[in-house]
Amino acid sequence: MSSRLKFAILGAAVLSVLPLTVWAQQTGYPGGSEYPFGTPASKADIDAWDKDVRPDGMGLPAGKGSYKEGAQIYGEQCASCHGAKLEGVRDQNLPQGGGPALIGGRGTLNTTHFKQSVESYWPYASTLFDYITRAMPYTAPGSLTPDEVYALTEFILAEGNIVPKSAVMDAKSLAKVQMPNKDGFYPDNRPYPVKRYD
Amino acid sequence: MNDISIGEAVTETEAERALEADCDCKDGMFPQGRIGTSSRRAFLRGSGLLTAAAAIVPVAAFAADEGEAPWSVPGRIAKSDYGTRAGFEKVARLASFGGTSSLTPLQASTGIITPSGLHFERHHNGVPNIDPAQHRLIIHGMVDKPMKYSVEDLKRFPSTSRILFVECSGNSNAASRSASQKTAQEAHGLTSTSEWTGVKLSTLLAQVGIKDGAAWVLAEGSDGAMLSRSVPIDKMLDDAMVAYAQNGEAIRPENGYPMRLILPGWEGNINVKWLRRLKIGDKPFMTREETSKYTDLITLTGKARQFSWVMEAKSLITFPSGDMRLPGKGFYEITGLAWSGRAPIERVEVTTDGGKTWHLASLQEPVLPKAHVRFRFPWHWDGTESIIESRATDQTGYTQPTKAFLTATEGVGPTYHYNGIQSWKVAADGSVSNVLQA
To answer: Is B432 helix (H, G, I), strand (E, B) or coil?
Structure first.
C-alpha cells in the first residue's frame, strides 16, 4: 500500500468519526441554541425592581427635595443609628451595632487615623441616592419616596459642605454634584511583585 | 524520635491513667470557641458545672480494660429525617459584634470541605426568609430578550459543579493590625470551601442575547440591603455561575438560598447572595459596596484601589493554632489551608523557627484551583518555644507576603484583602498563641 493510500484511508477514518465528536461536544439545546425555559420578563416585572442609579444620572427618578425636608426626615428615620450630628453611633443594641458616620474626615485618608465618610470618601453622589433608595432605613428598606430620598441626599451633602443648604436636589442637580474624593480611586493594580523565596 | 507516641499504651497502669485524667491537658488540644483550656476548667470547677457538663453525655465512665463498652448494645434504628452530627461534637461558628457575620471554626477543620452549617456568614441586613416558589431571577438591560427564571427553570438547564472557596475580602482584617484575635477562627474565619452547583452564566446570557457594547452586569440580591455589585461581563462569560446547591443540597439560607452568584476566586461580597436581578449595562454602576466599601484605601497615598476582586494567595496553619495547648513534646502533624483566587496553589512552605528555615509541606490531592488546599507537615516538637508559620505560592509565582511587606506597601491601610503570613507561638508549656510576625 502506498503511503498516500494509507494517508487517505486514515483520513477517511478520521472524517467518519469527526461528525460524532462534534455532535458530542454540542452543549446547546438539541433543538437549537436556546432552551425553552423561563418566561419573558414584562416591562412591569422590570420596572418593579429596576431602581438602580448610575453616576451619569441614569435611573434617577422624577422628584425633588430640600435641606429642610431632609433634616426632618433624617431626625425621624436616620438619627437613631447615624447620630443627631451625622457622627455615627456604635451600640450593640442597634441593628448592625449602629450606623457609620456620614460626614467628617476630609484630609485624613493619607493618615493612620483615616475616617471614611460620605463627605470624605464617597466618589459619587448617585451612590448615596441609590443606596438610601434601596437599603435604608435599615428597619424598613425601600420605604422612602423619591422626594424623601432627594431631600435626605441634599441634607447629608449640605451637612458635609458639599452643596449649599439652599440647593434643591433633583435628577438634574444631583448628577452635577462633584464629590470631594471623586479622584481618589484607581483600578486594581495587583498583584504586587512579591519577592520569590526560592 | 523514639519518644513519639500516638494513642494509649495498653500496658498503662491505673496510676498512670489516674495521673493523666487529672492533667492540665484533660480537655484536649482543642478548646471550644472562645473558652481556653485552663479557663474552661476553672469555670467548670468554680461553678460546679462539671457534673452538669458530664450529664450531656449519657454514658458511664469507662476504660478499655473493663470489657465491652456500654454502647455496644442495640443502637437507634434508621430515621428518615435530616441527620445531625454526634451529640458530643460542639464545634460552632462564632457571631461577630452586631450579628452581621459569623466565623468558620478553621482550627477544627479537616480536609478541604467546610460543612454547610459551618460556612461563614456575612450579610448586610440579615438573612432573608425567601420562599423558593415565589423567587425569580430577572435578566434585563442591554439584552435582546429580557427573561425571568424560577428556581425550577434554572434546574432544567445543563448544570455544573465546582469546589470553590469563598472568602470575605475583610477576612483577616484584625490580623493586619494586631494579634488580639486568639484563634484561627477569630482571626481568619471568613473563608470556607463548598461544592457549588448551578447554571453557568454563559448559558443564561446566551439565552437573553447580549447587545453590542455591553460590558458590565449589575447583580442584585433580594435581601433587605438589596446588596448589589457590578461585575465585568468577561468574568460572567468566563466561569461565573448562578448556584442553587451547596455540598449536595439546597444552599443554606445564610449563604444565599435559593440562588446566588458564584464568581470563582473573587471576594465574597461580589458573589451576590439571594440573587434576584442581573442588569446588563455599558458602565459600572458604582454601588455602595464597590465605592464606599470593598475598596482598598492605601494610607501611604490617601488613594484607594477599586475593583480589586481577586483574592490573592494566602495560607494559615490551622493546627496547632491559637488558644490550643499541646500536651507535651513529641510528634505533631502541622496542618493548614492554602488558597489563591488567581491560580492553583503551587506549593506551601512551613517554618517552625520563625522564618529562619522553610520546608515544603505536602499538599493533599486533589489540589483544586480556587479552592482551599489542605497542606501537612510532620513536626517533632522538642518542647522549646517555637514560632510556626506557613506561606503559599500559586502558579503565577506569587508568594504570600509578610506583614512587614504589606505595611511598607500599603501603610496601615486596607480593611480588605489582607493576606499576610500568620504566626503562631508555641510556648514551652505547650500553649499556642497568636503573635505578630517578627
So the answer is: strand
Cα–Cα distance measured from residue B245 to residue B116, given in angstroms and rounded to the nearest whole number: 11
Q: What is the tally of structural domains in chain B?
A: 3
Domains, chain A, in order of start with CATH, read 63-176 (1.10.760.10)
**Between chains, do B310 and A123 touch, taking CB under 8 Å as contact?**
no
Contacts B306 to A, Cβ<8 Å: 185-188
Q: What is the pLDDT of residues B247-258, one digit of tens each?
A: 999 999 999 999
B158–A194 C-beta distance less than 8 A: no
The rounded Cα B41 to chain-centroid distance in angstroms is 28
pLDDT in tens, A81-127: 999 999 999 988 888 889 999 999 999 999 989 999 999 999 999 99
Cβ-nearest to A40 among B146, B281, B409: B146
Contact B227, B244 (CB under 8 A): no
pLDDT, average across residues B128-157? 98
Task: Identify the domain containing residue B239 by its residue range.
Answer: 116-305
- Residue B271 falls within a domain, yes or no? yes
Residues B193 and B267 in one domain: yes
Check whether residue B296 and residue B323 sit in a common domain.
Answer: no
> What are the start-end ranges of the E strands in B144-207?
147-149, 160-167, 191-200
Rounded to two decimals, the ipTM of the complex is 0.85
Of B350, B184, B219, B189, whose CA–CA distance to B290 is shortest?
A: B219
Q: For the whole model, what pTM was predicted?
A: 0.87
- Residues of B within 8 A of A33 (CB-CB) are 206
CATH number reported for the structural domain that contains residue B286 in this entry: 3.90.420.10
DSSP string, B31-42: --TT--HHHHHH
Task: Please tell me which of the candidates A27, A127, A194 has its beta carbon nearest to residue B401.
Answer: A194
